[in-house]
Amino acid sequence: MTRDNTPLCIGGSPVDARLRARVPALTHRVVDRLLTDLPVYATLPPEEVAGDIADIVQRSLRLFADVLQRRGPARDDELVRQRESAAQRAEEGVPLDAILSAYQIGTAMGWEEISAEARPADFADAQEVLRHLFVLQRQLVAAVSAAYLEARQVLDVQEHAPRHALLAALLAGEPLEGIARRTGLRPAPRYVAMTLYVAAHPDEHSPGPRSRIAARRKIRRLQTALNGFAGEPALTALDAGGGTALLPVAEEPPWAALCGLIDRTETAVGAPVTAAAAGAAPDGLPAAVAQTADIVELVRRTDRPPGLYRLADVLLDYQLSRPSEALTGLADLLQPLAGRPELLHTLETYLARDLDRRGTAAALHVHPNTVDYRIRRIALLTGLTPTAPADARRLSAALVARRTLRA
Description:
- The chain is an alpha+beta fold.
- It has helices spanning 15-37, 39-42, 46-70, 80-92, 96-115, 123-172, 176-183, 209-230, 255-269, 285-301, 315-320, 325-332, 341-352, 357-364, 368-382, 389-406; strands spanning 9-10, 13-14, 190-198, 235-239, 242-249, 273-280, 307-309.
- It is elongated.
């Protein structure tokens, strides 16, 4: 609330008049400070700094003077040029934090200019000047941020559309010449095809908007981690549960490097990640993506731990999961154990622990003698002895076949 229409005075003179008189010189000082404190402004063309940047600084200082003269907030139409300038900076790639810092620097220097000669008797007017200054700064931050983010959203759509088209074309197996002509992008010589499953972050179980925010944050961090691997944007189709990614590479990366990528991705998103990867030239990507999707599904179905997998890691399960007459026959080897879940669970645990009876007993929380008894029962019912390597391999294959058919 304003006190009256008398001018706000500091140092014996009206603050708005004092500021207007010093705007030209103050503008030069503010611009020099921006170039010194914010390196990104020094990368802009000199004529742009002397033109548009200086113009915005001068307009904002004069707007501050107008606000102090009327002792009321800025009108929406008085912030048009600031919005236009923010959109232009977005197109140039100037970070939003640098733009907001520039406004803060200009605001602080404006206050220093008009308060330099303040006396104790000016306390009330100085307080009101600060109130108007904070209101104006809030208006500027809101207007500039909204304009910048709106411009960036449009730019992001324009930048991502060709990459999405390239991804779709590669997955559809279109000829490379047609892809380059249609999308304006040339495919990389080779890609790492990757299918990812990302478990839910704890915040995604929260009620209300917090869940949606957590999901969007997870997607953004996932995309950032994948982009950082090849040093250029990955081609992705992602949602909160994972998706497909094509990582452009010049040559096949070491498997350890890909495992490290998944480890970093897990840390970034704050949730377990299960993934499968396969290298392929552009014309082999449809088959590679289909294979990695099958591997991830198989890994999850067989309750393997999160991490990165390749075909060699699940070769037996993968082969037995293909349609075949032998699948039913293998699964039937375990038919005598139907209705005996404790025997099936013991067999799975025993084989998973490389026939280690004590390790099996510890995992099942039973005595080793109980494991021995159950192994004998399994051998009696199925005719196959789990302790014999040849029979153990058949039983392991039978378990995979059984899981596949049940799924």
